[in-house]
Amino acid sequence: MVRPLIAGNWKMNGTHRSLDLVRDVVSGLASLEDKADCLVCPPATLLGQVSQIAGESRLVTGGQDCHAEESGAHTGDIAAEMIADMGATYVIIGHSERRSDHGESDAIVAAKAEAAFRADLVPIICVGETLEEREADKTIDVISSQLKNSIPDSAANQTFVVAYEPVWAIGTGKVATPGQVAEVHDEIRKQLSQRFGSHGDERPLLYGGSMKPGNAAELLALENVNGGLIGGASLKAEDFLAIYAACVSNL
Ligand code: PEP
Fold this sequence. Notes:
By secondary structure, the chain is α/β, with parallel strands linked by helices. Helix content is 43%, strand content 15%.
């Protein structure tokens, strides 16, 4: 069985005042069954402090993006090695907001995944179609192309996670139906299996897009959904922990 992962993406939210949220998550997690991994990805400015608070607890931390190179003249960018140096173990790569706001291509995402492997971070590689692409019946084509080109061949020997995040469901309150999610996740699993064999069968597949306590149980119960990538609801400890609880109660 694939061990599930509940991951919070704080995006560009949080100041030092948000550290209480991390303390609440750490203490809440201690009373929930240890049947899934739990991750928060705060802004880079808080990553060191969040990692320190997470300490030896079950909460782990990650970055929201990294540069492909290890160092150099890239003002404002952060290397995967720097994220690891902050005590993090994961990094989100290719989030649709990075793809659209920063023009990140699949090739850039693949280079960032290589950087994550180099720094011993687990990349969470995001894929997802826009509303226009879904309405044009191109969802599976878009996902297939993103999987093929955003996941480098070197992933065959590396730990990685894939997140399916339909762009139209992110931060909009619109959730993909269980049928829509199952169709895409089953396809992702099939393609990872074909490409990477049993290694592909063992990769956690996360759903992301307006996941909340009220809809999490239904989505997390789907066969090839092994957790969630959660934006808005990860900014409230109570909601984030309720999603974690829904995940472990399914198992
Ligand atoms: C995300 O940021 O990856 C996300 C899924 O956001 P939200 O849960 O707010 O839709």
